[in-house]
Amino acid sequence: MKFNVLVIMLLVGTLLSSCASKKEILYLQDASKFDNSELSYGTTKIQPNDILRITVGALIEETAIPFNRSAGGQGGGGGIELIQLEGYLVTNENSISFPQLGSISTKDKTVLELEEYIKQMLESKGLLKAPTVNVRLLNAKVTILGEINSPGVYTFTEQNITLLQAIGYAGDLTINGKREDIKIIRELDGNRQIGTVDLTSGDFLNSDFYHVKPNDVIVVNPNDPRVKSAGFIGNVGTLLSVVSILFTTIVLITR
């Protein structure tokens, strides 16, 4: 009887040690101290191999036609083919070839800065009067892996999305995700950065990793209870064998 009680206590203790606490699960637990804080927006620079959609408008619509690409009449190609037809591929030298303006440098420019530059060039060369220019990144994507409900690669066209929005695209973290240790792998200008974000603290709202950048990789590791649980379940056969041997030994000794 004492042995059975001991085994039950051992199992209960193991299960309790595998439970996640409320503090490990809740997001932004101290967010109130950031109320009314000034918003900051990411300034994503255009990178080689980006594909840009550039839409030009003018007071007389017909005059803007030569400056706009259209996939119309190209057949029912797939999504990637459509992007390539509509967009301008940024070369490894950080440039694009634009109608009547020739080669345009995109180095160290954001999409907003490129919009303004093209607009000024069209006006200064007398090609269009009071033009409007809109630039969008067509192939921006983020990869989310690990303890996430729908891991995978997600595309976005917004100029600024936050880490929480990206996680929302993937259906949020599972209950087993380690919210205080989110890893973000980022490559910019040939350099690799690895950042750590704590989603349980509001401090990350002022972090460089608050906004997601194109091609970021977000890794959600399992929390400690999940790791312990995985180890326990994976060795349950061994545990039962040990318990069985101990039980048999005790029975033989106490006869």
TrEMBL record:
UniProt key word Transmembrane: yes
Cited InterPro entries: Poly_export, Poly_export_N, Soluble_ligand-bd
Record keywords, A-Z: Membrane, Signal, Transmembrane, Transmembrane helix
PROSITE patterns, alphabetized: PROKAR_LIPOPROTEIN
Organism: Subsaximicrobium wynnwilliamsii
Domain (Polysaccharide export protein N-terminal) ranges: 44-137
Sequence intervals crossing the membrane: 232-253
Gene3D superfamilies registered for this protein in UniProt: Outer membrane lipoprotein wza domain like
Limits of the Soluble ligand binding domain: 141-193
Keyword Zinc in record: no
Pfam families: Poly_export (PF02563), SLBB (PF10531)
Superkingdom of origin: Bacteria
Protein name: Polysaccharide export protein
GO molecular function, one term: polysaccharide transmembrane transporter activity
